[in-house]
């Protein structure tokens, strides 16, 4: 490998501490989370993640018992609902904007999606609470419960509408711009020779769609994983529509908790109860681990795509 010239090496050494600051901050964040979460894991062990219990007491440590199963379950369920809805919508929108829509409409759609990505999450939460939740409760949840209540997914009575389904739908709306941008950027980098080859073989619209999107499968998987990580970390908007109940239920209409909404609702009171603050940090550590896993695999998939079309 050819060494850098002296001037470039000096410039590199000058910028290295600044660039290393990012890694140092991440390492510090991880250390603080582990340090603060350790007393909770030391007291409860892995049962902290496998039990659904929340008994807070000011009397002493022997009277408290915590389990994060319900928030962990809610995080995974709402994220899965969001990703399963957002992914097909993102793919369909990319194809429509890039291949079918007129130029002016493309600009309108792209600008609208960019605007959605920049909106504060609290706006989504308020809209979801006041508009989306009553709408889906009256037009989706109640009809499904009355007709298909024997199915576990629809078995519980949707009282307020705040539920796993409501949180998943809201998260889907919030992560669509994020997933769309990843898929669109990769789709645009497909060489025109491949597009011309597909058309020259007489491919119809559907076949053309399948051929091109099969070429960017790693980017689609990356968008899915990064979207899951993004959905798992959303806080205020989810807290407004998920119902905030320690509940592990197969029913999509049941209220629940996510780790982020639990932290948002309970952290201000956690210092008054033994180990509750440490349990909050343990939940944060779980979110960090999920984010690192999803984001790491997603970045690897994106690198594979860049190598294909570099």
How is this structure best described in words?
This protein is mainly α. A two-stranded antiparallel ribbon has the order 1-2. Helix 7 (192-200) runs antiparallel to helix 8. Helices cover 73% and strands 1% of the residues. The model has no long low-confidence stretch (mean pLDDT 87). It is built from 12 helices and 2 strands. 35% of the residues are buried.
SSE pattern, N- to C-terminal? HHEEHHHHHHHHHH
Distance between the termini: 21 Å
User: Helical amount among residues, as a percent range?
Assistant: over 70%
Q: Quick one: how many beta strands?
A: 2
Instruction: List segments where confidence is low: pLDDT < 50 over at least 5 consecutive residues.
Output: none
What percentage of amino acids are in beta strands?
under 5%
Structural class: mainly alpha
Shape: globular
Largest sheet: 2 strands, antiparallel
Which radius of gyration do the C-alpha atoms yield? Answer: 23 Å
List the total number of helices: 12
Strand order of the largest sheet: 1-2
What do the pLDDT scores average to?
87
Descriptive tags:
310 residues, single chain
Indicate the topology.
Blueprint: H1 6-44, H2 47-50, E1 54-55, E2 65-66, H3 69-100, H4 103-118, H5 121-148, H6 164-188, H7 192-200, H8 205-214, H9 217-233, H10 236-241, H11 259-266, H12 276-308
Antiparallel strand pairs: 1-2
Helix pairs in contact: 1-12, 3-6, 3-9, 3-11, 4-6, 6-9, 7-8, 9-12, 11-12
């Amino acid at each position: 490998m050819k060494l850098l010239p002296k001037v470039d090496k000096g410039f590199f050494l000058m910028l290295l501490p600044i660039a290393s600051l990012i890694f140092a901050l991440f390492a510090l964040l991880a250390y603080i989370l582990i340090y603060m979460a350790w007393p909770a894991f030391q007291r409860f062990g892995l049962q902290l993640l496998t039990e659904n219990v929340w008994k807070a007491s000011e009397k002493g440590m022997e009277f408290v018992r915590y389990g994060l199963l319900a928030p962990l379950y809610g995080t995974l369920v709402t994220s899965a609902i969001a990703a399963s809805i957002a992914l097909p919508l993102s793919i369909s929108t990319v194809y429509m904007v890039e291949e079918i829509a007129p130029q002016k409409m493309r600009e309108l759609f792209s600008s609208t999606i960019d605007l959605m990505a920049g909106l504060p999450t609290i706006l989504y939460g308020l809209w979801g609470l006041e508009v989306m939740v009553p709408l889906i409760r009256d037009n989706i949840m109640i009809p499904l419960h009355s007709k298909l209540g024997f199915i576990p997914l629809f078995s519980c009575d949707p009282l307020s509408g705040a539920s796993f389904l409501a949180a998943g739908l809201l998260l889907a709306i919030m992560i669509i711009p994020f997933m769309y941008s990843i898929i669109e950027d990769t789709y645009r980098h497909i060489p025109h020779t491949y597009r011309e080859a597909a058309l020259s073989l007489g491919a119809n619209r559907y076949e053309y769609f399948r051929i091109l999107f099969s070429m960017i499968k790693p980017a689609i998987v990356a968008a899915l994983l990064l979207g899951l990580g993004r959905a798992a970390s959303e806080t205020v908007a989810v807290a407004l529509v998920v119902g905030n109940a320690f509940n592990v239920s197969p029913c999509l209409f049941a209220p629940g908790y996510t780790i982020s909404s639990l932290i948002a609702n309970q952290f201000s009171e956690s210092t008054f109860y033994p180990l509750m603050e440490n349990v909050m940090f343990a939940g944060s550590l779980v979110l960090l681990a999920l984010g690192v896993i999803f984001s790491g695999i997603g970045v690897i998939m994106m690198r594979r795509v860049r190598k294909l079309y570099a």
